[in-house]
Sequence to fold (892 residues):
Amino acid sequence: MVAFPDNIAPRRAIAVRVRSVLWVALLACCVLSLTTGATGVTLWDALVAAVTPAELPLAAKVVLWDIRLPRMLMAIVVGAALAVSGAVMQGLFRNPLADPGIVGVSAGAGTGAVIAIVLGSALPFGLASALGPWLVPLAAALGAWGTIMVLYAIATRRGVTTIATLLLAGIAISALAGALSGVLIYAADDTQLRDLTFWGLGSLAGATWTKLMAAAPLMIAGLLCARPLARGLNGLALGEAAAYHIGLPVQRLKRLAILSTAAATGAAVAVSGGIGFVGIVVPHLLRLISGPDHEELLPNAALLGASLLLLADLISRVIVAPAELPIGIITATLGGPFFLWLLLRGRALMGG
Amino acid sequence: MRWLALIALLPTTLVAEETPRVLSLGGAVTEIVYALGAGDLLVGRDQTSTHPAQAEALPDVGYVRRLAPEGILSVDPTLILAESGAGPAETVDLMTGAGVPWVTVPSGYDAAAIPAKVHVIADALGLEDQGDALADRIETQLAAAQADAANHDVSVMFVMSLQGGRVMAAGRETAADGIITLAGAQNAITAFDGYKQLTDEAVLTAAPDVILMMARAGEHAINDAAIQSHPALGATPAAQNGAIIRMDGVYLLGFGPRTPDAIRDLSRQLAHSVKEAG
Amino acid sequence: MLIARNIHVTLGSKEILHGVSASFAPAQLSVIVGPNGSGKTTLLRALTAETAFDGQITLNGHDITQTPAWKLASMRAVLPQSTVLAFPFTVAEVVRLGQMGGIGAGGPDRTFDALHRVGLQGYASRFYSDLSGGEQQRVQLARVLLQVWQPISTNGAPRWLILDEPVSSLDIGHQLLVMQIARDFADQGGGVVAVMHDLNLSAMFADHMILMRNGQITAQGLVREVLVDDHLSHAYGCPLRVGVAPPDQSTFILPQMAGARA
Fold:
């Protein structure tokens, strides 16, 4: 046959190169995150303490191992979970603007979390104490799952999602979820209220080993579920019918995608509140660089999402030190304009 | 040996030779530390600690309910004095883990609450004698201020905010309720605890003689015109008679050393606005 | 064989197909024609299990509702009327999707062969969304061809191409190209079922024809048996003549004469 220049190899090759760069970036962000903070403790101190008889002061130990390390790990899993959820949702809805935050899935997860915080003690059979720290992440994941199911039922006809319906449904669901949360917040007592306000602003400041252990397994499960979806999401880009015709188990694919997004988004929202725009910015940037092939996109999104959130968290920690800015403000400040740019660009392309 | 055991039992009291580095969280807590003459020991404060003026020079670790653990450790405190409600719980736990004692100063919205705070803080600082003296002085001042305040027989509504035209008012078990009572007046809202949004009808039913607010600058400021033009607030006796009082928030609601003055101030303004109306 | 027995399809509360029975043979190019709304596309969707139906459809002896997607995909490929992609895939990436399902996976990469076949060599690295409607249609055809690259499987069973208006957005040259591809597929032993609007092209390439009207088959059989004045006039609701040239000097162009010397 005629020899043609193979064009997929370049995009694949770019994606692979991007992946190595992202690994290095993630590693650098981790070191930076462990080393930087309001106190002067650095990783170097710990290394020195490890090889010399000099003991690290207790406060420095706490800063490194109980504050910065769980927070760093939390930023990594939350960032990866949000970015991958965004990419999976966009693939599922065949719509580059689908983002857990924008279409109301985060709001649904938030309502789940609020319900758990306020009404958790009213659960029968000692369920609340049995679940312990897992209660809130699980409730948030359930909330996210319910929201995606409703969204899918409303916004998708014959496997095609119109952007207008999706965004409008997102607004309606966010409003509904907000109203429900509002009712519960009204009924909340003072301690619960404090939990709620702390959490609603979006922050990784509360990252402790306990929270990490409670939420990370759900997020990691969501991420692992997403991995085998990659090929299917590529096929789904053709539409549900065509995906079925090329041999994909479309219904199972959709269910798995929804479960994966719900678990990852839900748990992420439960521990970090409303951190927006990671899910839309990260996959979009990567598609611009190395194409929409989900087999490359999903792992790269996990890496870039983790790095971005580490950086945003770093900014939130040092910009007004010793106080802290909620990280949601940082990601919204960076992501909001990007989203607007996307919309404008899309409008130019669609001529509408 | 017994001496050692005693030290172990009192982790929050100080071993004499080392000067403690104190982080104060809460406006009233900071004021009490200064009133005890221990202002030099402070190495940090929260956002609401703005009085006395020299407190503002201290590093600010942020909002008292959203404290970042590393931010706190960065001022390297050896003792943390925090008003109740400071947190989140994770941060408190981490401080304990880092070996920094966290002393919670009890809250309370009556005359007895302030001496109680003083004692807790003085004990933590090892300044028991100064604490006794300050508590006695404040008790005397409080008694005198209350005696002067007498009974105004007016109902006062404390309006926290007027967001989107919705009135957020103070119910029972609030600092506002406490100071209104101490100043010899009645809280117009007794149907609930804490701060909640009122319907317009509830505002009309409460029919306060006086509206009390925090003096604020900027966009949160609520001017008289906004109150008078509000459909429900505008129809209350308070708005009709122009009986609207504004006072500094920490001064009015802090329940600290300045509270006796705040009681006198509020009482005087209540008397004035009622006389004006009558 | 692709056999449909007594197919009823109801969309909403309206029955679209009222008991359609038809059979399609391998090594033949079968076309389904009929006026708008006659149920052609609905029948095609039933034949591909894309829509729910009452009745029974078997493909190479397998009941299609009981057969998993991957197995169906190894026996037949389906070309939709048009496909919009949400993401900026390149032409080669789209075509390669045809190879992911089953039979092609792991085999040699035939992406460029498939593109060459539909006359789109050199388009591999272009963005799908930048192409014209006709070019996009041919990219999809290349993808579909890749899925059933060998018209007869290794165990001797025929493979099937199911095409929904494959030439609707093409110019006459490419219409001929695409119909020839379908013809070749049938000539090599595969089965082709196509919904068509163009009666001339159908007459030119097809072996077997099904004429539909109001959700029922009014005529089926060899092309020359179906394409007669009475059947057509009845189905399309207007008087039509077959094989009669206009009497005066009016201009007309027939695909049958393409390539013939003037």
About this structure: Chains C and B do not touch (no CB pair under 8 Å).
